[in-house]
Design goal:
heterodimer; A: 492 residues; alpha/beta; Aspartate Aminotransferase, domain 2; Aspartate Aminotransferase, domain 1; 16 helices; B: 132 residues; OB fold (Dihydrolipoamide Acetyltransferase, E2P); three-stranded antiparallel β-sheet; 9 strands
């Protein structure tokens, strides 16, 4: 493993650069038409390095990464599966790359056809009647969904409905979304088996209920078995059901949210439909709706008339919640998701759900056999599962975070730690369908080794990582003293 | 085993309540709660004058592991939020029942009786049932 890479400013030498590659302006000073008051008086503090130094610096940084291309990445809830190269290749066709978003419809029929077909395929795979593609991340899609639920109630003159019910096993973004949309969050518990507490749900619904936000399989990694009853209770109370598509990978091609009674959902295309993500994006949080919410879909939406594709206009969708992004959102991500779906087809998508759950259940079984405790031992896993290390924490004083750090030494990206919050000392493990059995076995071997170390030489685990460019970072100090800027020193 | 002082009242959601001489109450999170959260890096306390219902989320404690709401153990009016915690959230870890208090409240009429607070012994049983 390489050692720590310096900050690029530390390579800086006055006057060094690659100026031959700057644009050359002939005759006109490029700043001439900027008013003086808008121009800066001093040059910005930028690193001055040659092209080769810059290339080496960023290449070395990239080699410090854990990535799907280099490591098993079982980061629960994030679906870090392999991104097929073909999706990237086709989305990078010059005809797509060179398309200007303001070009007339007649010049972008190919792109529009892809977007229209993507809408149609997503409707089919989720059991929804309408789809809009532009939200640019999962939370953005959630915002669109809850905004549509609110718009629906308002359009009916049902102005009191401002409460969103959120089970405690929900994604943390769900209560945040409801709050951002001006709703009040009512949290309800799950029972010991991980299902929604139906008595608490019945007590929570009423004339103020706008809807419920559910992830299924839930963040506990288990399928919500009472979903039909949940849907009946919420619908009888006049509320709508929102499906958080974060865990759609588990049921892809097998069960459709529309058939479970959901009225609205977002899909994390960057997760389930395998576009590169992590490190902040780019994502794509397309939304799907049942017929009664279709008038409220965010624009843009692509329509087809005969063989021609076109954007629906605002006058055709007067009740739309509006635009949530510039142009078509993260159009390049949408294209990759479209190509992924076309490559897999119906049978391939069914195999995604099957192998994602098979891999998770295989890994869960083997880890339990190796001495790890499942948080929900009576339940079959969805596409991910939770191991709790509360016993190891008590007996060996070795925590989930220590295990996570030690895994880095052994060549694995750590699973999600300390989430969901309701399980102590937990690891949320999601292998995805793209890992081989050999890789899953290697992960079990690494976990077993760490468990043995926790027994025999716990300090080795507590002080991990030992082989990374940096040792254990002081995350508490970093959070208490936020300092994200590097200040140039007086080196020149 | 976490510290559960006998002279305080508790909630199932891991808040403690101390009745002060003037009839107001002081509220914080228990030793068990601070230990489960880990080192706190951010604490948000309510402003004086705010009226809260029982079980209403009114403060936030955040560690590097988790962010968690703190609920009003009873109905009443906030008389003070602990001003020291914005600069020194770690006080809640080091002294959860003392300097790490979160807020003071004036209970609404009958609110203490209505709140169904737990004794130290009952709260210890809650912790035992949670495997803590």
């Amino acid at each position: 493993m390489p050692t720590r890479e310096k900050v690029i400013f530390e390579y800086s030498q006055p006057g060094r650069g690659a100026s031959d590659q700057w644009p050359h302006y002939v005759g006109v000073a490029p700043l001439a038409d900027l008013p003086a008051k808008l121009r800066r008086s001093a040059a910005p503090e930028l690193p001055e390095v040659g092209e080769l130094e810059a290339v080496r610096h960023f290449t070395r940084l990239s080699q410090l990464n854990f990535s799907i291309d280099t490591h098993f990445y079982p980061l629960g809830s994030c679906t870090m599966k392999y991104n097929p190269r073909a999706c990237n290749q086709y989305a990078m066709l010059p005809q797509f790359l060179a398309r200007h978003p303001l070009a007339p419809e007649s010049h972008g029929q190919g792109f529009l056809a892809c977007m229209y077909e993507l809408q149609e395929m997503l409707k089919e795979v989720t059991g929804m009647q309408g789809v809009a593609l532009s939200p640019m991340a999962g939370a953005h899609g959630e915002f669109a969904g809850v905004a549509m639920i609110r718009a629906y109630h308002r359009a009916r003159g049902d102005l009191k409905r401002n409460e969103i019910i959120v089970p405690e096993a929900a994604h943390g973004t769900n209560p945040a979304t409801a709050t951002m949309c001006g709703c009040v969050v009512r949290e309800i518990p799950v029972n010991a088996a991980g299902d929604v507490d139906l008595a608490a749900l019945k007590a929570a619904v009423g004339p103020n209920t706008a809807g419920i936000m559910l992830t299924n399989p839930s963040t506990l990694g288990v399928f919500e078995r009472g979903i039909e009853e949940v849907a009946r209770v919420v619908h009888d109370a006049g509320g709508l059901l929102y499906y958080d598509g974060a865990n759609l990978n588990a049921i892809l091609g097998k069960v459709r949210p529309g058939d479970m009674g959901f009225d609205c959902l977002h899909m994390n295309l960057h997760k389930t439909f395998s576009t590169p993500h992590g490190g902040g994006g780019p994502g794509a949080g397309a939304v799907g709706v049942a017929a009664r919410l279709a008038p409220f879909l965010p624009l843009p939406v692509v329509d087809r008339e005969g063989e021609r594709y076109r954007w629906l206009t605002e006058s055709e969708m007067p009740q739309s919640i509006g635009r949530l992004s510039a142009f078509m959102g993260n159009a390049g991500v949408l294209l990759r998701a479209y190509i992924y779906m076309r490559l897999l087809g119906r049978d391939g998508m069914r195999a995604v759900g099957e192998y994602a759950t098979l891999n998770a259940n295989y890994l869960l079984k083997r880890l339990r056999d190796a001495g790890f405790e499942a948080a929900y031992p009576e339940r079959r896993a969805g596409h991910e599962f939770i191991v709790t290390l509360r016993r190891q924490a008590r007996e060996f004083n070795v925590t989930a975070m220590d295990f996570a750090k030690r895994l880095l030494d052994l060549g694995f990206h750590a699973p999600t730690t300390y989430f969901p919050l309701i399980v102590p000392e937990c690891l949320l493990i999601e292998p995805t369908e793209t890992e081989s059995r050999e890789m899953l076995d290697a992960f079990v071997a690494a976990m077993s080794q760490i468990l043995e170390e926790a027994r025999q030489e716990p300090e080795r685990v507590r002080s991990a990582p030992h082989t990374m460019p940096v040792r254990r970072l002081d995350d508490v100090r970093a959070a208490r003293h936020l300092d994200l800027t590097w200040t140039p020193t007086t080196q020149h | 085993m976490s510290n559960v002082p006998a002279d305080l009242k508790y909630t199932k959601s891991h808040e403690w309540v101390r009745t002060l001489k003037d009839g107001t109450v002081e509220v914080g999170i228990t030793d068990h709660a601070q230990h489960a959260l880990g080192d706190l890096v951010f604490v948000e306390v309510p402003e004086a004058g705010r009226a809260v219902k029982a079980d209403e989320a009114c403060a936030v404690v955040e560690s590097v592991k988790a962010a968690s709401d703190v609920y009003a153990p009873l109905a009443g009016e906030i008389t003070a939020g602990n001003p020291k915690l914005s600069d020194a959230p770690e006080t809640v870890n080091s002294d959860p029942y003392g300097e790490g208090w979160l807020m003071r409240m004036r209970p609404a009429a009958g609110a203490i009786a209505a709140a169904g607070l737990l004794s130290a012994a009952d709260y210890s049983q809650v912790l035992a049932a949670e495997g803590g």
